[in-house]
Amino acid sequence: MTQHKWVSIPSEGIGSIPRPDNLLEATIGYESDVVPREVLYQTQLNATETTLRELDELTHSEVLTDGEQTKPSFLTYPIYELINKSYRFDDKCFKITFSDGHVRTLPRLIKAPFQYATYAHKYLDVAKKFTKKPIKQAIITASALSMVYLPTLFNMTAIENYSREEFLQDLCNECEKDIRLCLTHGAHTVQLDFTEARLSLKIDPTGHLLKEFISINNRVLDRFTPEEQKKIGVHVCPGGDCDSYHSYKIDYTLVLPDLFQLHLRNFYLQLSSEKDRVKILNCIKQYMKPHHRIFVGVIDPINPEIETAQAVRDRILEAAQYIPLEQMGTTDDCGYSPFADDRSRSRKTCYEKVKARIQGTKLAEQILNFGRA
Ligand SMILES: [Zn+2]
């Protein structure tokens, strides 16, 4: 009998956990000039410390996130502080419409050059003060922010002497810096939130926009060595927010072949909420590459019901028929609160779901390893 080396199945969350009430209140108070900055900052620190501790103690996760407690949203954090200076919200902006009819708007660039005010390592530096465990840091893709200046598609006003190509150069420089700073500041992995991948096929069913998004992101990723690319990943999903999606109806299998062209290693893929998981798994099997790691979504944050560890185990055993054990990982289908004001789930429910993921992953790991003996 051949003795196989034990193969662990890594498990990582996507990023966000709902913010506590006192943090949301302090944020609103700060924006209305009734709460001083120091009070908001202390409330943010407390929320970050509590989230890291609870994720550690209540779920036994090996890799932690700060729960994105101080990000205004997964999408706008780099430019949030420049709104009304370099960016503006108006009717010419790119808008995302969700299945329940609610809309999220991306501000548009009104003043060159494109630049970030906040880099994600800021969150990582704070989180590192509170834990010795590895920390994953999520960042936004260059492709998502490419929508802040797209005069041709959305009738945005072009900025004088600032071509789309000049904009793309500035954008790629900023996104590269965002990733690189997270890596040099010790992130366990850096995850690109690429929720607009599936959305792009809703805007442009020809797939041209999706290919352009992949190409913009690879323009950034190609600046990293293969060793660095091993610590970089991407998350895709149908865009959950306030218990609805923006692109669930778009065929996932039209996104995956292009997605696997990204020059990085780790794929955090929504899967558990799909109606036909076998079809998706077949597509993953066909297009994934030997150096990829596939973190399959085994928990659905949109579903208020808490999954059992056994249900998680079974989803992994199903996925293991298509993905080699050495390339398998598990994750949640999405974050629990990608926009700061999304309070669809309680924090307690989120932790119970994460705990089920961790326990179910261990159960599957045992079965799959013993099955190889
Ligand atoms: Zn997501």
TrEMBL record:
Gene3D superfamilies: 3.20.20.210
Protein name: Methionine synthase
InterPro entries according to UniProt: UROD/MetE-like_sf (IPR038071)
Lineage top rank: taxon: Eukaryota
Lineage, broadest ranks: Eukaryota, Metazoa, Spiralia, Gnathifera, Rotifera
